[in-house]
Structures are given as C-alpha cells and as structure tokens.
Write a structure and sequence with these properties.
This protein is mainly α and 302 residues long. The protein has a single domain, classed as MetI-like (MetI-like fold, Orthogonal Bundle). The protein is built from 14 helices and no strands. Helix 5 runs antiparallel to helix 6, helix 5 crosses helix 11 and helix 7 crosses helix 8. The N terminus and C terminus are likely disordered.
Length: 302
C-alpha cells in the first residue's frame, strides 16, 4: 500500500466536503438569506461589547443610589430606577456580564466533559458504556432546571456553585449526542483501517472520530447557552443564584415583583434583555445548523 493510499484510507469522511472558497463565504450567504440570524448576530455582538466594557458604557454604578425612587425612564435614567433608586440601565448592562459568563462557561465545561464521556461510552461499550449511560439516564429522568435547583441547594448559593450546578445539569445532552454518533462511526472503514494500522485508541477517538461529531455538538452548544442563561436567571429569581448585591437579570426581575404595579419598567426591560438574548442565540444556532448541514453542502457542489 502506498503512502497516498494509506492516508486516503484512514481519512475521516467529510473533511473536504466543501471547497475552501465556497466554505469561506458560506456564513455570509446564509446571513444574507436569514435576516433574523443577521440581526441576532448584531445584537449579540453589541451585548458582548457592552458586557466587556460595562464600566465605560454604564452611566452609574450598578449599586449606587441616585435618590430617584422608582423614577420612570428619562434622559437622566434611560430605563428608570428601581425601588432603591439604582439606575436600571446600569444594572442591566452589568447583569449581562453574569448571564453571558455563566452561559458560556457552563456550556464549555459541560461540552468538554460530555463529549469525553460520550466518546468513551460509545467507543468501548460494555460495562463502561452501561455505567456512564445509567448516570446519564438518571439525569434525563429529571428536568435540567430541577437538577440545577437541587445542586444549588446542596452546594449553596454563589457564582461558582451556580456554574457547577448548571454544568452538571447540561452535560448529559452532549454525552448522548456524541455516544450515538460514535456507535455508528466506530465501525466505519476509516476507523477499522486506523485500528489495523496500529493507531492508539486516543488517536482514533480524537483524530478520526471526534471531528465527525463536532457539527451536532456545536449546534447543541448554541442551544445550551440560551438554556444556561435561562437557568441562571431562574435560579437568581428564586434567590438561589449569586449574592443579592450582584446585579443579574434574574435578580432584577425578582426585585421587581413587589413594585410592578408602580413601576412597569422594572420587569419589562430585564425581561426583554433575557428574551432577546435567548432568541438571538437560537436564531444564530439555526443558521449554524444550516451552515454545517452536510446535505446542503453536497447539493451546492452538484
């Protein structure tokens, strides 16, 4: 067998599905056709920018009292003030830091752990697969938010404990997706050829199998970010999230419950921030799914 034939026989399928030039501009074509995804991308970029440069964007300290009790939106306070005379716009801007940090961090950690568990369970099978999947099945028996509430109740409140709780609640989704794909990929010819040539299990898993599971994993990650943001907001709303002095969207909504009849802006604006963020992530996830759709790639080539 020649060197060229050997390299071709163990190459994972799908690595050259789209010509580089076409793939380079595919995102732009999808965004031009999908206006909601384009608007979602713009909104998320603005949101990330405001989170990174919150001290420069927010006109007031998020916990400073400005002596304007329940003031409606005005030039001085664009989104009004709350029951403690704190500027609502500044608190929402600073709250985006917590929401995005929790959403992105928890999904990254749960994705890494879940992918590794799925790879190991699907590739080795046997008692290892049974052990891992029985744990995953146990998690699937309860809603993710209920698991997060239980874990926070066990570990206690605080930002680090919220991240741990949400991470453990969401890793099962990645493990199931990866395991299902590995079960079909491990019997493919390129895997059998790599194994026959003496490639180690680690090389087979991370060099040949893992790249072919990334498309659904990336799409699931975008969906999980929105769920993680909702989970953090829900925990903060219930008083199980970060400290009361830390501005978060869920905590702002929780404080607005007693004053909604006197200040509608207290609940409307943080609620809009959560809604628009979650919708933007979902729209972007749909566009990402279209970009990674193998069937569309094949149709474009023909």
């Amino acid at each position: 067998m020649t060197e060229t034939t050997t390299a071709t026989s163990i190459q994972s399928p799908g690595w050259e599905r789209v010509p580089p030039r076409r793939g380079r501009w595919r995102w732009w074509k999808i965004l031009r056709r999908n206006r909601p995804a384009a608007l979602a991308l713009v909104f998320l970029l603005v949101l990330i920018g405001s989170a990174l440069w919150a001290p420069q964007i927010a006109p007031y300290d998020p916990n400073a009292q400005e002596y304007a009790f329940l003031a409606p939106p005005s030039w001085a306070h664009p989104l009004g003030t709350d029951d403690l005379s704190r500027d609502l716009f500044s608190r929402i801007v600073y709250g985006s830091r917590i929401s995005l940090f929790v959403g992105i961090t928890t999904v990254l950690i749960s994705m890494v752990v879940g992918v590794v568990l799925g790879l190991v369970a699907g590739y080795y099978g046997g008692w290892i697969d049974n052990l891992i999947m029985r744990y995953i099945d146990l998690q699937w028996a309860f809603p993710n938010f209920i698991i997060a509430v239980y874990l926070v109740a066990v570990f206690g409140t605080g930002l680090s404990n919220v991240i741990i709780a949400v991470t453990l609640a969401f890793l099962d989704d990645f493990a199931r997706i990866v395991r299902g794909m590995v079960l079909s990929l491990r019997e493919q010819e390129f895997v059998l050829a790599a194994r026959a040539m003496g490639a180690s299990d680690i090389r087979i898993l991370f060099r040949h199998i893992l790249p072919n599971t990334l498309a659904p994993v990336i799409v699931q990650a975008t969906v999980s970010v929105s769920y993680a943001i909702l989970a953090e907001a829900g925990l903060s709303f219930l008083g199980l999230g970060v400290k009361p002095t830390t501005p978060t969207w869920g905590l702002i909504l929780s404080d607005a419950r007693s004053f909604f009849s006197r200040g509608w802006w207290l609940a409307v604006f943080p609620g809009l921030a959560i809604t628009l963020t979650v919708l933007s992530i979902n729209f972007l996830g749909d566009a990402l799914r279209d970009m990674l759709d193998v069937r569309e790639h094949t149709e474009e080539r023909h």
